[in-house]
Amino acid sequence: MLKSLTASALGAGLAAGLVAAALQLLLLVPLIGEAELYESGALTHFSAGEAAPHDHAGESDGHDHAASDGHDHDHAGHSHDGASGFDRTLLTILSTVATYTGFALIMVAGFAVAEGAGLSRITPRQGMLWGLAGFAATQFLPALGLAPELPGSGAAALEARQTWWLMTAALTLAGIGLMAAVKSPLRYAGILLIALPHVFGAPHPEGYAGVTPPELAALFAARVLVVGGVAWLALGWLAGLLWSRETAS
Amino acid sequence: MNATNTTKTIIRAETGLGAIAVALLMGVALVYTAGFANSAVLHSAAHDSRHAISFPCH
Q1: pLDDT tens readout for residues B28-49
Q2: How close does chain A come to B6, measured CA to CA in Å?
Q3: By three-state DSSP, how is residue A93 classified?
């Protein structure tokens, strides 16, 4: 049992984690690098009179320029993260694979419970639905209260946000589980569980004092949700595929 | 016969539940370490992936 669980979770976590990391490095990490230039003050947003018109004059030029600046800056020893270049890329891949492997272990534990309780037989297609549930619990619904944030964004205290995030993820999973597993009208209590953290409300800062341009932050937030959705679908499909093969014999 | 079957079922259920609990705990520990632990080293290592997965960071 433990072998089936770990084998399917490790396989799915590794493969989906690599897909997620590739998309992150292509679509998200360049925006993080650019935002760090604003965070460190190497670039300023509207604070100097000339910066804004200059940026608006040639948007694509300005963008390319900022991106290549980011690269140089990292090599020059921008110490925000203590790592740069290749090391930083490798650490991002490793931690993304670790995170998705963690998600996969939790998901296959759910598969085993659902099959053990006779609720459903897991197929790759079923796995994709579980992937959507995972996406809803970890990214989609938390985004209603806390937008995916770039470095240099203003935000409330970290512990408060982490607590709200964990509560939202747990209640969303419980709510989805209740709606999927229970046949009686009690299932609609699941909607209440999902809504609860949003009624309660996410912690927000007193005012908005972030130094990162809102255009950059908006693009980042949108891309995070797309990348997360794709990665979670891949994770669910792969976990369902590997789990159904592991338990078929 | 019945008793043996029952015992077998219980044992199977118990090892099953144990394995499920182990997988669940490992999963939560991995997600917590990569996404939430406040250690400076872990934060630095996982910085970009925390932002990219939209965990609260900083």
Answers
A1: 999 999 999 988 999 999 999 9
A2: 16
A3: helix
